[in-house]
Amino acid sequence: TIRTVGSIAHDPELYQAQQEFIQTHRAWQQAQQSQLEDVREQARRLMDATRLRLRHLGLNEAMIDEIASWDQPDHRLLLGGDGQFWVYASIYEYELPLIREGQAVVVQVNSLPGTAFEGTVRAVDPMLDQTTRTARARILLNDPQGLLRPGMYVDVSIQVDLGEVLAVPREAIFETGTKQIVFVDRGQGLFEPRDVVVGARTEGLVEVKTGLGDGERIVTSGNFLIDSESRLKAALEGAAPGAEPAGAHQH
């Protein structure tokens, strides 16, 4: 579950841009009947300009193609309509690969405790905000009772299906600052530190891409104690009489 924040959209700028694109697209279609090349070319340039503006406002090509078939802009961008609102939610850069069109969304509002609204991800903006390092997910939200208002801040939960992967409890991953380690139980009180490459993180589990095999026994608690003890033993052995100078070996 990806949790983030967003707001109920009130976007008159996008509404106006949609209206301009619909008009120029309609004019371009009509211009195709003209025998004058200049007329057709001018209509195409105007349509391309309004299409580009929609791209700059965050819409992808599929959504723009859909708008081309409309008779009027989307009124849900202003005051909602047909029991639906648009929600704009911020998705961090590292979470973007997990977001797909059609994913289920649950939205909650602080002013309406205990009430959950269901929605669907319709698109993710192709551009990234340079300041926040986020992209905007466009969510179509159902509000059959008319409880929501434009501009409301909302809490958003997006359900992500990660499929079937090798995973370990979060507590099993020992973070050194530069790498991730899992201690593998070799039996008879022996533990092997194993470098792993991790992937997606859920509330209780972490995906392991490489470094472990299915069914291996691992330490899920006390990792810090095991690591501290192994470092202490190495230090004591290095300080023993006749030991090689520190740094002579890398253990």
Explain what the structure shows:
With 251 residues, the protein is α+β, with helices and mostly antiparallel strands. Helix content is 25%, strand content 30%. It is built from 4 helices and 11 strands, in the order βαααββββββββββα. The strands form 2 sheets. The chain has a 6-stranded antiparallel beta barrel. The protein has a 5-stranded antiparallel sheet with strand order 7-11-10-9-8, with helices on one face. A hairpin with a 7-residue loop joins strand 3 and strand 4. Helix 1 runs antiparallel to helix 2. The longest helix has 20 residues. It is elongated, with a radius of gyration of 28 Å.
Unreliable sequence segments: 246-251
How far do the termini sit from each other?
Answer: 40 Å
Mean pLDDT: 87
Question: Shape, please?
Answer: elongated
Helix content: 25-40%
Question: What is the topological layout?
Answer:
Blueprint: E1 2-8, H1 12-31, H2 37-56, H3 61-67, E2 84-92, E3 104-108, E4 116-124, E5 134-142, E6 153-158, E7 167-169, E8 174-175, E9 180-187, E10 190-201, E11 205-210, H4 223-239
Helix pairs in contact: 1-2
Key features of this structure:
about 250 residues; about 30% strand; single chain; 4 helices
Report a brief summary of the structure.
The chain is of the alpha+beta class.
